[in-house]
Structures are given as C-alpha cells and as structure tokens.
Amino acid sequence: MGSVWLAITYIGGWILSMRIFGYFWKNRKLAINDAEPWFPENKPRALYISLLQQTEPEATDAQLRAALLRRAMEAVTRVLSMREDKQVLANLVKQGTVGDDIWTEFTVSEKELEYEIMAIVEEANTFKERWGQTILQTASEMVMHEKSKLLEKETKAKKEEEAHQKALDEQRKEHTRVQSEKNKEARIERERAKALQELLAEEDAAKKKASRPRSKKKSH
Amino acid sequence: MSTVDLQIYNDKVVCGKHKKEVCSECNQSFIEINDLTRHLKSTNGQVPPPGAVLPLRSQQIAKMREDGNTHFRAQRHQEAIAAYTNAINIAFDRPLWEPSQLAREELAVLLCNRSAAYIARKEWVDAYVDAQGVIELKRPWSKGHFRLGKALIGMGRIAEAIEALNLGLMFDPEATEIQKALKEAETGLEAEEDE
Question: Could you tell me which residues the TPR repeats occupy (chain B) (predicted)?
Fold first, then answer.
C-alpha cells in the first residue's frame, strides 16, 4: 500500500515540476515574440503602394516614380544604419549584454530589407528598362542631398530663435535701465531728504545759537 | 500590409480626409513627394541618371550671384542681399537627385556672400545665421568662420568671436583678414575688461 502512495507522489511531483517549467518557458517564448521590430513602419513603402491602388484619378507616372524614389531612399537609409549597427550589436551579443531575441530580430529585418531592395529594383524596371541598375545609386545621392536641404529649415528656425533672444535681451536691458533710473531717482530723493534734514538741523542749531547769546545778555 | 489614406487632388497627393498636403490630424506630410514629382516632370518623363545636372539652374544661379556681387561692390547692399536671396532660394530648390556636393559648394558661396552683405548693413543676427550655415556646409573653409567672427563682434559676443576666428585660423593660418579681425576682437575684449 505504501509503495502505491510513493509512486503517486513521485509521478505527481514530476507532473507539477513539468507544469512549472512549461509555464515559464511559454512566458519566455511570448517575450521573444514581443521584441520590437528593428525599424518602425516603412511609411514611404506604404505610400507607394497606396498610390498604386489609387483610382479616379489614377496617380501619374511622375508621382509614382517620385514615390518609388522615396521608397528607395528609405531603403538606402536603412541599409546604412544596419551596416553601422551590425558590428556593435554582434559584439554586444558575444559579450552577452544583449539577448538573442534582439539579434534574431535584427537578422530578420536584414532579410526583409534584402527583399525590399529586390522589390524596388523590380518595380523600377517596370517604369523604364534598366532603371533598376541605377535607382539605388540615385537614391543614395538623394539621401545625402536631403541633409543639406535640411539647412533651409534650420536657418529659418535659428533666425527666429536669435531674433527672439535679441528681443529678450533688449527687454532685459530696458528693464535694468528703468530699474537703475528708478534707483537713481530714489537715491536723489533720499539725498534731497537728507539734505533737507541737515538744513533743518543747521537752522535749529543756528536758532539755538542765536537764542543763547540773547539769554546770556539777559543774565548779564 | 499597411496603406496610407490619401487621394490625388489637383495633381497633388493629399491626405484622404482633409485634402491637405501637410495634415497634422492625419500626421502626414506629402510635401516631399509632391516636390519630387514637380522636379521629375521637368525631365520630360526621363529617369534621372546618376550625376546628371540640368545646366539651366546652374546658369541662373551663377547669373544672380554675379548680379549680387556687382551690387555689393557698388555698395548697394540691400540689392545685393535681394539677389543673393533669390539665388539661394533657387539653389535650395535643386532637384534631390543632383549631386549633393555641387549643391553644397554653391550654397556655401552664396550664403557666405549674403552674410558679408548683412555684415555691411550691420544686420548682425542674419549675418550670424548665414555664417553658421556656411560652416555647416563647408567646415574647412576659413571664410565661414571669419564671417561668423565678424557677426559675433557686431553682436558684442567677443569671447565667442575670438573662438570662431581662432578656429578659422586653424584651417587657414595665413588668412590676413582673420588675423586682423582677431586683433580687433582682442582689443575689444580688453576694453570690455577695463570697463
């Protein structure tokens, strides 16, 4: 009888530990799937696809080409940023500072990007033969060029900021000027009051002096 | 697969709900794509080959720059600024696929000239901002640092001016105009300290 109970506890213990292990394992799996995608949503790509689907009126050829160029630019930016990140990330994974889930996400994104580039090249060839060979080169030039275009906006923003700063400075200067004038007036006022008091005191003294001799005379 | 809610209205790509080019509600901006479309139309349906430059724009810019230089030499600074500003606007509108190196050079020279014109009119803030643009575009060029230094002296920020001028001298140790400006700034600083 005792051996039966022993067997039951034994098996029950096994099942319990399996359950616990399974529970944590499942949670971990979920956590891996939760890892964020390497890049945010590819907006230029979505834009191109939406443009292709436009009816009444259909998108013009130039619009589609522009959208495709934008999509290629996004791909180029992503390739550049991945190339930069790859070495660093590989080192971090080797050290164990970063989990394998991030590395998995990275390699998946890399593969996706490869397909995206192939898709862009194919699309470009549908517009014009052999555009696929040059579109990425053009796009990378455009990415560089866009950086210097940013200057236009920056310049405007900077001008406004500097003007604002200048206005503030002037306000402050004006404020200090007014303040110092007020201080000056107050000082002058104080001095005047003081002078008046002194004058009164002197007058008093003079009166006393004047009255004393008289009293002396009287005493004589 | 995600899509963007858009439509085509008056030959422009706009957001689907409000027909706006830049829509804060939909959080979308179609300016880039419409700009690019406008530039692509001017190539008559050709695909832009890498490194291609339309000569017309460069000619226009060069002409306006010359106009500006003539005005500047004749001390008509206001007109010079107007000419340079026009040229800068055209230069900023250069199609994206044209070589960025070319655009940078062109813009740097134009901004530098406009900065000089602003300095001549004692509009220090504008001169300062333009000079900073020059440095951003073409850092190893001592002229940009010289203009920045001049503008800062004008604004009364002497210490910063000396810093900028010294940086400019590092790129071109023989620039006499920078050395002169530096001396001017240093005497200015001494005078300030004496006060």
Answer: 142-175
Residues of A in contact with B136 (CB under 8 A): 151, 154
**Residue A50: CB atoms within 10 Å:** 19
Residues of B in contact with A61 (CB under 8 A): 45
Examine the pLDDT at A217 and tell me if it is beyond 70: no
Q: How far is B84 from chain A (nearest CA, A)?
A: 14
Bridge partner residues of B8 (DSSP)? B13
d(CA B53, CA B60): 13
Which pair of tokens denotes residue B61?
Answer: 């810019």
Alpha-carbon torsion angle A183, A185, A188, A189, nearest 10: -110
Residue range A10-29: average pLDDT?
91
Question: What is the rounded CA–CA span in Å between residue A137 and residue A153?
Answer: 26
A146 vs B contacts (CB less than 8 Å):
96
The total of other beta-carbon atoms located within 10 Å of residue A105's CB is: 16
The predicted-structure confidence for A80-100, as pLDDT tens digits, reads as follows 999 999 999 999 988 888 888
Bridge partners of B29?
B22
Does residue A27 sit in helix, strand or coil?
helix
The mean of the pLDDT values for chain B is 86
When pLDDT is cut at 50, 70 and 90, the band that residue B189 belongs to is confident
Q: Which CATH class is domain B139-195?
A: mainly alpha
Query: Is B29 touching A (CB cutoff 8 A)?
Result: no
Helix (H) or strand (E) holding A94: helix A61-95
| Domain locations along chain B | 6-41, 54-121, 139-195
Taking CA atoms, B18 is separated from A43, B10, B154, in Å, by 19, 14, 48
Mean pLDDT, residues A108-119:
92
In terms of Cα–Cα distance, which of B104, B75, B78 is closest to B92? B104
Q: Residue for token digits 């004058």?
A: A199
Closest chain B residue to the Cα of A42, Cα to Cα:
B2
- Other beta carbons less than 10 A from residue B124's beta carbon: 20
pLDDT, chain A, mean: 86
